[in-house]
Amino acid sequence: MSDATDTGPVLAADGTPLKRSLNRALRRQKMRALMLIAPLLLFVLVTFIAPIVDMLWRSVENQIVSETLPRTTKALADYDAKSNELPRDAVFEAAYYDIFIAAEAKLHTRLGSRLNYEMTGASSLFRKSGRGLDDIGEVYQKQFKKLDKNWDEAEPWAQLMGDPDWLSAQADWQKGQKQPTFKLRDGIVDVLPITADQYRTFALFQQTDEGKSPLNEEPWTAVHTALYQDLAAHDLSGYTGPQAEMLKAADALVDSPDFKTVDFKETFGDIDKDWLTPEIWHTIKIYSPNFTSGYFLNAVDMEKTPDGAGFRDEDERIYGLLFKRTMFMSMVITISCILLAYPISYLLSTLPARTSNLLMILVLLPFWTSLLVRTSAWKVMLQQQGVINDVLVWLGLVADDARLTMINNQFGTIVAMTHILLPFMILPMYSVMSTIPTTYVRAAKSLGATNWTTFWRVYFPQSVPGIGAGSILVFILSIGYYITPEIVGGTTGTFISNRIAYHISSSLNWGLAAALGTILLAVVLLLYWAYDKIVGIDNVKLGG
User: pTM for the whole thing?
Assistant: First the structure.
């Protein structure tokens, strides 16, 4: 017998090390398991995770200001938003070009709507400015056109600004083909920097947004404004490039005392006097970053100011009240459901199966009726001329001229939502109670316990998991309801969810709606955490 010990690895049947073979088999099993649950994971990702991420993004995203007013936000970088003075003239010049381009792209109204959330009247201000800023460029356009009609033609401008290779390629372009991307002529930026920037924006817009050729489209009036500024600031006597004679003649015209000019700040004031107030510039400055906390501040009745965050005026604070009302009424609805559902669930769990099944059908019957119909029925029953008031008057419990007000208030919301959510409390309770052995109750009674002691010391503790499951379900459902409070709640019975729905569908302030939804989600998670710490989520059961 050999004393030698084999210290080599244990091999599988195919000759590979057993450890490696086992690891490979485990990986295959994990991959198969992953493939089986992949559709569910994808469904959860698309329908649950992605909307939450999108909501969080919308609640802080603010790129529309910086993207629509890039020159203005840059010019406002050194502006003191705490001052009560207007910004320098360069800011008005930058705003002219930004708003003009935004108006051509039809983005100025979206920007106005965004800033209108922070400053009332901003929407109409930008709408009027989009129409009125053409007047500035038309002053220069008419004078250049009177000097030489080529200044109002497309081709001379293209020859002046465009690269020769691009001109040749663009001339061969046919509709339906992809256009050659516009390219500025070498050196033109040094000669006419502002004009080159504006014409390039115009040309690219015509190609990408309008699908038209810059060789066939007259430049914007803002390009003529830029031309005046470049001619006034630079000496073009030594220019020898394309359209040299036309450009030098225009340079001489600008230098003449008869040339008419326009002041940017004065024209903005003529369009709307609000442009000459610091408030609009403070708002643009404050909301110029790509990300903002403004939506969340608004959601807690605060606002961004030049001095930092501050509370709104007392008469403008509504969201704090709505959050408190939502939490309070949801708790009352949950407690009401517990009080009503517990005896029903107990009865269902103790009756014979045939009778229990019949009663269960009655419990489930509301699920087969439209939510809108059920809510409308309560509106009919609870109104002052409704069924309940008529019965009370007939019984003599209430005078005809003193009918109860049970609708369009908190009471109406609580009654209607308790009825709607009651099955969601009964089902978890019943599923738990049906699993409680009856022998425990009989054993307690046989040992001398009273009915109350038997219930409180033996039966009730075993039914608590069902109460917990039903409470979480009803509470979370109730804080998110908005149809029922909208119909029967009036002004004092609506929830925060009604305001979220309003901002999504009516005011289109999706950022504020996302911030309110995020706060509501955080409150639910906080309450869930508190419930876990106090009761223990492991004690929540749906039966078994």
Answer: 0.79
